[in-house]
């Protein structure tokens, strides 16, 4: 078990490193929200999901929807490290002709199950996937990560009602509760109030877990849920820019076009991550 946790920590380190390298090679992009989902991605792809990178369309696979599609660079690093496509492709992020557009496109990237980027839509796609598996009595699981600012989209709440009504226990939602959105905190833009209480009222089992607590994430996400259980919603108590102290402290790390000073700081973080294997 200890070894497996260490492997997952090492996987998260590698995802963070590749994500920083690809964004910094480009010189701009969604740093903060890519970094805050990295441990969740490491646990999902490194431990929980049934996948076959050599056969991305394997019918028995578990599905993943990145509803907060602007974190695409973190998903791409995860998929490349799992072997869906060569690692070298990461340096083509968001460039003409790339298979890695800024936001995920299921027709362009091996391993991407849903095209996202317009906030609010991914969770509806995930609900449809889960309903289809349930109706066909298949046991594929579906995982979906949403942003906390994304919850401003009314479509999310329609999907939550639908998921609870149909008791889509094969679907697990993760909300990246990093308390910030594009240009301010949730408190400033639209107050979230008590998210945990809200989701319980909407029919979910809710677990709040530190966004970088790999052991707790693994324990929460690994068990297969049965039809008696309500769908699980994990509130990731995360930090925007997670794992890079300079970005964690920046008042707004949502989208950066690197200044020379910022590039120096990010290069330092890259060097540190390169030096310290877990
Ligand atoms: C429908 C829609 N409206 C606006 C945007 C622009 N946009 C991109 S990210 C973002 C903020 C999202 O905040 P949050 O979900 O908290 O993202 P995170 O903090 O995880 O980066 C916005 C408004 C969008 N992608 N889609
Ligand atoms: Mg947020």
CATH fold type: Rossmann fold
Give the CATH superfamily.
Thiamin diphosphate (ThDP)-binding fold, Pyr/PP domains
**Which structural category do the helix and sheet elements fall into?**
alpha/beta
CATH class term: Alpha Beta
- Strand order in the sheet with the most strands: 2-3-4-6-5
**What is the element string, with H for helices and E for strands?**
HEHHEHHEHEHHEHEHEH
Query: What is the rounded Rg?
Result: 18 Å
Main β sheet profile = 5 strands, parallel
Please indicate the percent range of residues in DSSP E strands (runs of 2 or more): 5-15%
Secondary structure elements and pairings:
Blueprint: H1 2-26, E1 28-29, H2 31-35, H3 38-48, E2 63-66, H4 72-82, H5 121-135, E3 142-147, H6 154-165, E4 171-177, H7 186-189, H8 195-201, E5 205-210, H9 214-221, E6 232-237, H10 245-249, E7 256-257, H11 260-275
Parallel strand pairs: 2-3, 3-4, 4-6, 5-6
Antiparallel strand pairs: 1-7
Report on the structure:
The strands form two sheets. The protein has a five-stranded parallel β-sheet with strand order 2-3-4-6-5, with helices on both faces. It has a two-stranded antiparallel sheet with strand order 1-7. The chain is 43% helix and 12% strand. The model has no long low-confidence stretch (mean pLDDT 97). The protein has eleven helices and seven strands. The radius of gyration is 18 Å and the shape is globular. Helix 3 crosses helix 9. The protein is of the alpha/beta class. The chain binds thiamine diphosphate (TPP) and magnesium ion (MG).
